Amino acid sequence: MKPTSLAILTSAAIFSMSWAMPALADVDYHIDINQPTHHLAQVSVSFPQSDSDVLTVNLPIWRTGRYQVLPVADGVRLFKATDNRGKSLPWKRTASGEWQIALTKPTSVKVTYQLHANELGERLRHIDSSHAFLDASGVFMYSPEFRQQPVTINMEVPEDWKSYSGMDKGSTPHSFKAANYDVLVDSPIETGINQHVSFEADGRDYDVVFWGEGNYDTQKIVADLTKISGQASAIWPDYPFKRYVYMVHATSGARGATEHINSTIIQLPRFNFREREDYLRFISTASHEFIHTWNVKAYRPQGLVPYDYQSENMTDLLWMAEGSTSYFQNQLLLRAGVITAKEFFDDLSQRIVLNQHNPGREVQSVAEASLGQWSSTWGDYAVNHSVNIYSEGYLASMALDFSLLSDTQLAHSYRDVHKALYQQYKIPLSYNVADVQSILKNLSGKDYQSWWTEYVNQPFSLPFDDLLAHAGLITTYGKSPKTEVDAGMMLSGLYNDLIIASVLKNGPAWNAGVAAGDEIVAVNGLKVTADGLTKRLNDFNVGDTIKLSIFRDERLKEVSLLLTEQPKGDLSIAPVDKVTDAHKAFYKAWLGVEWPFNDEGEWINTTD
């Protein structure tokens, strides 16, 4: 639906207005978490007086940070609307997330409904006997007529619960207030039995809230978050918030994270914090979401401003919103000393390998992937015909960074692009492709339209060694690289079965006619197991033809598969043979830290 003239103003615009506005009546929200064991709550919303014939009430059909339509309204039952005298008002359901209430005269309106909240992994809403996580997009309805009115939220929760949010506190320990619905919808609430730690970094206040038992080290996490939170000045000149809340869920399996204007929610299985590999996954996610506070929340592409909560918000720049955030996340960790240079490049090496094993990079551009994000799916087809706005967006950002560093003789980097976007296009403004290209031209003096065509508007494959050579680096499988057989297929990894999850396009299995969903039962007539398949394949040599026995649609089928070769071992990044001062200067301009190798080409610091 079309927003009203007031609805197109975001919270940032409201806060920045210096001219007088008439007083606005509050929209009052109340949630009674009265049956937490059954994931149920009772919600009421009191809207100010409306002079319209129909009051439209909505629940968003998607949540910010997740660019896909979700069945959000399915959690609503027992919807009811009453007027200022408590008299029932007639209403009808007109869309997935829309109710229309008929009014015969001006009146305030109270809407009540039962809410079911058991979508923890969606980071949308979750209520149980120990806590409630409430993202307003899945909990609190709004009316476009009153979208810009101030809001108050009052909660009735069990006595021993504590409540936290990036919003300002209200008059009670379990109440909050916000300038409007747009602030509310981007300020989730964590209430329940939790641990809480506060810290300060670079003049800003931070809270860390932990829910769930797990093997996390609160002291280490807080220490590292403090280091990260002080690194923002490497890209941006100031902060779009005064206080920020890190919410951490130690779960029974749910994982993921979502950014918000003043907070983030990060989820990991409860015992996936302690091992270094697990911890790096957690802390890099925290860095990613923190960066989003600028990139996406403080400035974002056209199509995402203002948010339309009732339909898809299309943009061809999601790769910058998400992929560039992924590109910067470990740079901040490296600058902060939270990760080592070796850990930084181990991550980059893995990204390179994943890209090289993704046939979709030859099919889809990052611009097309951005537009297709709302309907994107996982699986075999995606691997072979799609790219990811996060991973390939990272690589497009890297290519742009290296191009800008070279074109400006190290005077400017991709960080300066995002600094300019923040300074020139803060919400309620937005930027488009022409704006980004204008910034690039102002920084470099060169026209980037042809670069954009090559790396954004059409599929690309990066010459990684040519790029990394600018920084005195090269990819390698070791001084004496070895190879092993490659069948070009991946198992699902579920239930220890031999069901094929994906077959790489134009690889050995693809050319043999093997398809995703096939079940392998034997190699050369001998039964195999999921654990033993790789070992069995390695009994053969590159160039051998093997016979695979597979079940497809419950029929036994036999195919011949010619094994090809692939590098054996892990790809790593190492210094070139002759490192120059120019290499070291490029490296420092790129990452903001000193050269990480000694004269023998060994890492100077490989410890935590």
TrEMBL record:
Coiled-coil zones: none
Location of the PDZ domain: 474-534
Signal peptide coordinates: 1-25
This protein's record includes keyword Signal: yes
Keyword Endoplasmic reticulum belongs to the record: no
This protein's UniProt keywords: Signal
Matching Gene3D superfamilies: 2.30.42.10, 2.60.40.3650, Neutral Protease Domain 2 (1.10.390.10)
InterPro entries on file: PDZ, PDZ_sf, Peptidase_M4/M1_CTD_sf, Peptidase_M61, Peptidase_M61_catalytic, Peptidase_M61_N
Name of the protein: Peptidase M61
